[in-house]
Write a structure and sequence with these properties.
It comes from Thermoanaerobacter mathranii subsp. mathranii (strain DSM 11426 / CCUG 53645 / CIP 108742 / A3). Belongs to the pseudouridine-5'-phosphate glycosidase family. This protein has about 300 residues and is an alpha/beta fold. It has 13 helices and eleven strands. It binds pseudouridine-5'-monophosphate and manganese (II) ion. Pseudouridine-5'-monophosphate binds next to helix 2, helix 8 and helix 12.
Length: about 300
């Protein structure tokens, strides 16, 4: 195992026994949700994955060590400490060398999962091309990671705070398969529809696992994006959430919020503007992703046996 990594007992045992493991990110805990919803959600996600027959591995960097699987205390630390950085690919060298603690974004979580040979990773929504990127150049490192790192990512699409058509164009250019889980529509996080189509729909976890394995068997590097829409009963009204997003974007611009601060700022602002409705939706969609991710990990694990 890589010299920078510590595996939890649970994850270590699962790997020795050849059980399916599902990675979870920590930015959603430290920067994506408020306390105590963040810690409650983190624990719930782990339990959903266990209940469906896989082992969860929440990933974070604590005091310069990559932790694959967190203890209760470590989860609590990630959920409450104000000292935690937000690490994507470019941050990993400095954070590790300096012994800092950081939550891992989709990009950094993919890197760490890959180092530990974990093939399936569950998140809420990926980062993407930001609106106005033609001016700001703000394109999430998540997209390049999907282009390069061999981990399948289960998400509810990308948030409508982003430029979704350009996000899909980018993924196409870099050869990332985008697969709809039981849908032809690329979901927009809080809503099931975006008006944008995916190229392939899978009807179950077995089909999803086959596509993932086929990509890597072909020697094609990089991830596969499994887009799993928020359950109908928790989806928000499109006009309602679009208005909140517009207002949050306006506020961010007014306050000149930029770079890695923008995503956490918008999430928090949208939560306030919707009186917590967006947070509720966020929690439910990521729970649904954990359920689907566990099932895909189990099928993929069978294909590799
Ligand atoms: N989506 C969410 N909540 C989040 C994130 C995405 O619903 O907290 C996080 C993920 O960790 C993602 C990161 O990788 O935001 C993207 O940040 P940026 O736009 O700075 O690349
Ligand atoms: Mn960015």
């Amino acid at each position: 195992m890589n010299k920078f990594i510590n595996l939890s007992q649970e994850v270590k045992k699962a790997m020795e026994e050849g059980k399916p493991v599902v990675a979870l990110e920590s930015t959603i805990i430290s920067h994506g949700m408020p306390y105590p919803e963040n810690i409650e959600t983190a624990k719930t996600l782990e339990n959903i994955i266990r209940e469906h027959g896989a082992i969860p591995a929440t990933i974070a960097i604590i005091n310069g060590r990559i932790k694959i699987g967190l203890s209760k205390e470590e989860l609590e630390f990630m959920a409450t400490s104000k000292e935690i950085l937000k690490a994507s690919r470019r941050d990993l060298p400095a954070v590790l060398a300096k012994g800092f603690s950081a939550a891992t974004t989709v990009s950094a979580t993919m890197i760490c999962a890959n180092l530990a040979s974990i093939k399936v990773f569950v998140t809420g929504g990926i980062g993407g091309v930001h609106r106005g990127a033609e001016q700001t150049f703000d394109i999430s490192a998540d997209l390049q990671e999907l282009a390069n790192t061999d981990v399948a990512v289960v998400c509810a699409g990308a948030k409508a705070i982003l430029d979704l058509p350009r996000t899909l164009e980018y993924l196409e250019t870099f050869g990332v398969p985008v697969v709809g889980f039981k849908t032809w529509e690329f979901p927009a996080f809080y809503t099931r529809e975006s008006g944008l189509k995916v190229d392939y729909k899978v009807d179950d976890e077995i089909e999803a696992a086959k596509i993932i394995k086929t990509k890597w068997d072909l020697g094609l590097k990089g991830g596969v994006l499994i887009a799993n829409p928020i359950p109908e009963e928790y989806a928000l009204d499109k006009a309602y959430i679009d208005k909140a997003i517009e207002d949050a974007l306006y506020e961010a611009e007014k306050r000149n919020i930029k770079g890695k601060e923008i995503t956490p700022f918008l999430l928090d602002k949208i939560k306030d503007l919707t009186q917590g409705e967006s947070l509720k939706a966020n929690i439910e969609l990521v729970k649904n992703n954990a359920f689907v991710g566990a099932k895909i990990a189990i099928e993929l694990n069978k294909l590799y046996k």
